[in-house]
Queue: 3 jobs
Job 1
Amino acid sequence: MTNTLYDALIAPHAENDQIFLALDNGTCWTYRQFVQRAAQLAHVLRKAGVNAGDRLVVQGPKTAEAIALYGAALQTGAIYLPLNTAYTQSEVRYFVDDATPTLVVCDPGHLDAMTDICPCQILTLADDDTGSLSIAANDQPATFDAVDRGPDDLAALLYTSGTTGRSKGAMMSHRNLLSNAVSLTDLWQITDQDRLIHALPIFHTHGLFVALNTSLLAGAKVRFMAGFDTDKIVDELPQSTLMMGVPTFYTRLLGYPRLTHALAAKMRLFISGSAPLLAETHTAFEQRTGHRILERYGMTETNMITSNPFDGERIAGTVGFALPDVEVAITVDGEPAGPGQVGMIEVRGDNVFQGYWNMPEKTAKELRDTGFFITGDLGVQTEDGRISIVGRQKDLIISGGYNIYPKEIEDVINDIAGVLESAVFGLPDPDFGETVVAAIVLTDQSLSNDAIANMVEPQLARFKHPRRYIVMDALPRNTMGKVQKNILRTEYGT
Ligand code: MLC
Ligand code: AMP
């Protein structure tokens, strides 16, 4: 039997007694314990009827047990589908309806809400490991024969919102995930001597695949934190060698007086991605710590695409070069752009996903027959291949590393009686990079901003909530009738 990801990431650690996860409460899991726990959980999944190709939805706490559950999903051949813990019931309903999972695992506090919307079986995962999944696993055998899965079989389904408002499930194969983990581990020279500060959520590509698949491949130690806490990160820096974060991590660390060269002396690499890192953050961080942050660029559908070099020059404001096994093309109207010419960033390689779940038309629009995926990001490339992202063709806000699609919020606002139309856009924010603002035109002038917020907020995760509503007589439009969000951004951006 072979199982591409299990064989590469998990099986080699069956007798490894080095520390894998160092937890907030001071306890640790060795690699061997992790492998055994994953096997126990795999038995529970199988008893719950989870077979190869079935979807396993997980919306739960960030714990070591949750990582073992990811390992268990790989072993059973299930397609792992993690969900942001901030999603509301109505958001989760869409994912469950679309993915038709065999099993849902959720926090015990969400069990009632989940029962209302899930026709399938539900088990719970608690932050103190007292959920029904954990209890059922305790008396299971500590070995499990991994199910046969090849490189082209699906390992994960990650939902990513779209410009049309409906989220799309990006189908990731074993090959997609493994090829990227191998490239990154090699490029960033991650080894079993590393200790990674892990403060990212584990329901996105960055915290789950970039951080954990590379650590598993290298046998690195992971300081696994339940969330981002500046104090705790500063405490961990002297014992650690590696950190991966979104730009907000770095701006928050810069606001901290204890951050000095001496504190980060043992660190060998700080990596940033998921959102643009301002050149001023890059410079200020180097002045304070002596480290040049390595910025890389990626996407849910493609895993990581480019990276600044580990050994060569890391240039602020650029995202570096295509990874060794990834092709990047910059195109204008589908034709190659010249050096220095702005165009669409397109990507091809083993890293590129298998298409959108149940959405062949959407897949065909974004994934060319040639294998190139159209990212929606605009970039330029120098003659020697260094890439800079200069904008986005897609209407997208990135707040603290979370993608927010304005259309999804506009749809909710426009459904409110008394609202004629709305335009949601991003304004610069010192903490999150961008913040969400909604311009609205009313038909009922008595409708207050608070009343609108009260109707919008239960339907959307907190990070998507507009932080400001601006009532206008009319939205600015061009001669074609298209709303000009650039005018709104300029007018309200100061
Ligand atoms: C939290 N809040 C946010 C927010 N995160 N609002 C907008 N944008 C965000 N990103 C809300 C909280 O609910 C809270 O609401 C308020 O803002 C302040 O919260 P906080 O305590 O300051 O936030 P915190 O919990 O510290 O979280 C901030 C953060 C977190 C930056 C640590 O957002 C985070 O971990 N972001 C990383 C996202 C990520 O992993 N992205 C990778 C996607 S993969 P209230 O009610 O208190 O006002 C990808 C591909 C690639 O993009 O290339 O990697
Ligand atoms: P997601 O769909 O959540 O995976 O987010 C992917 C998007 O994040 C990309 O299409 C880019 O727009 C953005 N992104 C990721 N990394 C970077 C980066 N280093 N600089 C600028 N934008 C980035």
Note: Residues 200-201, 204-207, 227-228, 246, 248, 273-274, 298-300, 399-402, 432, 462-463 surround malonyl-coenzyme A (ligand 1) (CB under 6 Å).
Job 2
Amino acid sequence: MEEIFDTAILGAGPAGICAAIYAARAGLKALWLDGKFVPGGQIQDAYRVDNYPGFPGISGIELGETLGNHAGKLGMTPLCETVTAIESPWEPVKAICTRKHRYLTRTVILASGATHRKLGIPGEEDFEGMGVSYCAACDGAFFRGRTVAVVGGGNVAAGDAVFLAGLCKKVYVVHRRDALRAEKGEQERLFACENVEMVWDSTAQKIIGQDQVTGLQVWNVKTGEERCLEVDGVFVAVGTRPQTKLAEDFLELDEAGYIPAGEDCVTHVPGIFAAGDIRGKNLRQVVTAMADGANAVYSAQRYLTGVTK
Ligand code: NAP
């Protein structure tokens, strides 16, 4: 008879890793899949994580590795396979399809996280990898001693700008308002960097270059003034977009594109749970994603044993 898993965990970011740890400890027969070889998800892109309790200032890569090793010690390692479809989601046994396999499972924990949002301006696509980057921790070193712009005003933009200020001659931070969304501590670190120039109330209009980026055209929304920043690189840090494509045929999304589910991660499809950055919630952090991973497994266990209240 074909093997049927108790649960399939899709994604190996903090939510998926935590779900894998809890599933292992609960003795569930779990399938764990991620499209990438290295666990960690978005934290792999963070040069520094300062609010994960117990690990102040840890690099994203090290945190991802530490979490992945914890799961590994419990016998859990994600299979590197990209999921292409979830079949028969409403049935008691669902199928998870990848290019190579079709797995059967009684529950699914969707923990596929989020991906970088783009600016959608001229030049962005043309110069991706040739001066346009979405990951300062990955690409920052290519811009040592040069001038770059970071676009965005959240934690990621502020953190990236601080990191780049340590490598680059000059860093412009282009933000569409006159106040950052980033936490106070991140803001203080940013404003203390002498080679950072804030470009307030400004939107990025066009990325300019020949073979490589040479400039970023910005527009001041208050004065209407246009300016071209002479930069060698543009780091885009304007937030993330949930990766919900696999679930869109059977799950309704909220207005912002996230999967509606409470803290128990229960969706309106029996046996399907949503954990981490794809779930509609107020605060998207490593710790809240990990809490989701634990809650999703707890809810899956209750579903598997027929507990409904
Ligand atoms: P974010 O907090 O959503 O901030 C996105 C920033 O980009 C905002 O300042 C926003 O401007 C700006 N923006 C959005 N669309 C734009 C556009 N089209 N043009 C120009 N600017 C635009 O995103 P994030 O900094 O990438 O962080 C993503 C999530 O990860 C957040 O929920 C964050 O809390 C979380 N995070 C967690 C940790 C951690 O757990 N340690 C670390 C970093 C980030 P406005 O401010 O005007 O809206």
Note: Residues 46, 49, 51, 119, 151-157, 176-177, 181, 203, 237-240, 284-286 surround NAP (CB under 6 Å).
Job 3
Amino acid sequence: MNDSCILVVEDEVEIAELIEFHAKRDGFRTRVVHSGKTALESLAREIPDVVVLDLMLPDVDGLEVLRRVRRAETTAHVPVLIVSAKGDESDVVAGIELGADDYVTKPFSPRILMARLKNAIRRQHADHEPNQNEPERYVLCGGELVIDPARHVVTLCGKDVDLTLTEFGIIQYLAARPGFVRTREQIISAVHGRATVLSSRTVDVHVTALRRKLEALGTRIETVRGVGYRFAEVSETSIED
Ligand code: CA
């Protein structure tokens, strides 16, 4: 994790400095650029470990930067965290569907941003270890929750949870990348084929049922307003001051 490089793309100088300050304090190298065009130039020179990307940028906007990051073979794998202004939910949804990993809304807590960044880098490294792409089991919440895709079983404190195929598909998809927001559309395509037709509305119904079956851990499936859902490895309140 140390010596990881964060590319900060943010035209508001104060926010860029705030991110830079916290990133450096946590031992990261940073590169800061203030426009979409300079972001693309920077990405062509050196590939960062993670990109913090504002959406509203001069010249090339953030969504276009993201599109090009995902399209280029050299940067397709780099985690991207979107920083958006409050109320720009449709842009956030578009960003996540273009392949952003997560987002924060301004004004954001720097500690939450750093926690998300570290999570993104850790996941990225884990994904690149050989034979780790499809883990045999997902062990979550200090072992209280275990998802076993091969056996198609979820256990809660050692006891099997009776889930439908769709519920299993949703928890497996969200838990595969804890902390990352997924839109309803992404959830639908991930579980497609496991069950009958799913709509955004029915995703909500399945999530409600899933939360109930997961009892106390049900709250770990967080609703991200206007965007979708995420599985919280650590609850947001415990990250905050
Ligand atoms: Ca901006």
Note: Residues 110-128 form the longest helix (19 residues).
